[in-house]
Request: fold
Amino acid sequence: MNRTFSLALLIFLLLFLGLATIHPAIVALALPLILYLLGGLWFAPGKVQLHAERSLSAERVKTGDDVAVTLKVTNRGSALEEVLLEDQIPDGLEVSEGSARRLLILPAGGSVTWTFMLKGRRGYYGLKNVHAIIGEHLGLARLEQDLPTDGQLFILPPVLRLRRVAIQPRRTRIFSGTIPARQGGSGVEFFDVREYQQGDSPRWINWRATARHPQNVFSNEFEQERAADVGLILDGRHRTNDFGDRSIFENSVLATAALADTFLNAGNRVGLLFYGHQIIWTMPGYGKMQSERILHDLSRLEPGDSHNFSELYVPRHLFPSRSQLVLVSPLIPEDYDMLAALRMSGYHLLVVSPNPVSFESGSMAPTRTNLLARRIIQLQRAVLLRRLRGMGIHVVDWDTSQPFEKTAKLELEQRMVLPRGVLR
Amino acid sequence: MTRILRFACPVLSTGLLAAGYFLSGLDWFAVALFVFGILWIVGLALHWDWVLPLGLFTTFGAAALGLLQGLSTLFLIAGSLFALLAWDLADFHLRLQKSSPEDDLTMLEKHHLLRLGFLGFSGAGLSAFALTLHLDPSFEWTVILMLFAVWGLGRVVERLLNIES
Reply:
């Protein structure tokens, strides 16, 4: 019950009783209460003019890093007897050191500055208001205000360092890179043997072939290595990522960040398409700036369901034909058609799939029913992955109980050996 | 200081009221108040929020009842005054819980206790002064004065609630 209301009710009851019984001592009993109430009114805060300023030690940090938040609140009005200031910290952030609250007396023209540390999970956080509760010493008159401040914080996903990711799209760009271009020229890997041409280094001469054909001299040709267009597609659908109150989405983000970083470090042009509540497209680009751009976008993504597309939808006009697409998705059987269509359009597909079955079953009791259910779903998933591999899609089934680096080292560093009869 | 006072005031409040009843031979009422005092203290220790208004209303109710029974005015008014202080200090203690280690709580406590002490003494003095007055207004005048008092208090409460909203 509100304190003022409680006090007023008690006073009215005593006055009524005093009047009804015509007993002056009961009215006298109410007098300290009346005085207390009047004291609250007398010292009630007048016009409040508080001004808050916020500064952050960094606006972009990695997951797990601390950010120092400094708040300065200035009283530009009359003196305030009791002020509780509390920074409104969004869900997902927590105070790791210090306090986001202050309780103090603020004289006219006075100010208070304090610093505390924040940390949190991946995301974008708008730090907008400082909540102020202003009152007098008795706590009867209380005024609440939200003091507007500026501040935003991006907590970027961690970036795992992968040695290399072997991809071989049919189409490469003209710039040199690390992707085998299926064209002879200067490079590292042996590609073909051709007749010696002027300008060839003597070290390239293939002496064995020359010995067989004494009339001609042959030299080795190497496979050119070029940069490629890589389109990363991150699946953020609720239905594929969320299982009750647990979500595998963070694993997908982790894998996407690691892949983007690796592809960009190898000199490729990388774009990111997020498919969730809405489609978010990060334009393709090269280098560190693009890496930052992708991490920036990854930091603010949350899974959701699109109202327009119930199935996985990849707008093909965003990706050059025959380029490399990398889908990071837990996958559901309905995705097969879309992936098959992309493959048939000439795209090279790499699917990194955090395994939702092992992820979900990790939190379930190992009862007989659960184990049986897990086995059935694993089989369904194995069938789906096998069908995809049969189409020439490189599928990496990532058991999320294992670190992504380990899976990537085993399954991504080597080129995929296609099943017999499948064309590149 | 507040930590000690917030327990001392309910003890003094129920103790004084119980003494007032006990001295007039109403032993069972005194025992009931004593038991209530224990409940109040336990409630404060265990942070039961509902015990704060209950303590205030019960002690003032017991004091009013005692006055109607013609018990010792000194004990009853002093007991109810300590109940008011206990109610205030318990709420102040709750507000202090929201402070951070950097806050100067000593300063806040000092200001609060000074204000409370001043109002407590003034209230006690005012009550004592009111009890010494021997006015004998007619019933009509009493009603009119009471209506004015109710109207005035209503305005005060309205103002305080308006500040909050």
Q: What stands out?
A: The radius of gyration of chain B is 18 Å. The first helix of chain B runs from residue 2 to 23. DSSP finds six helices and no strands in chain B. Chain B touches chain A through 58 residues (CB under 8 Å).
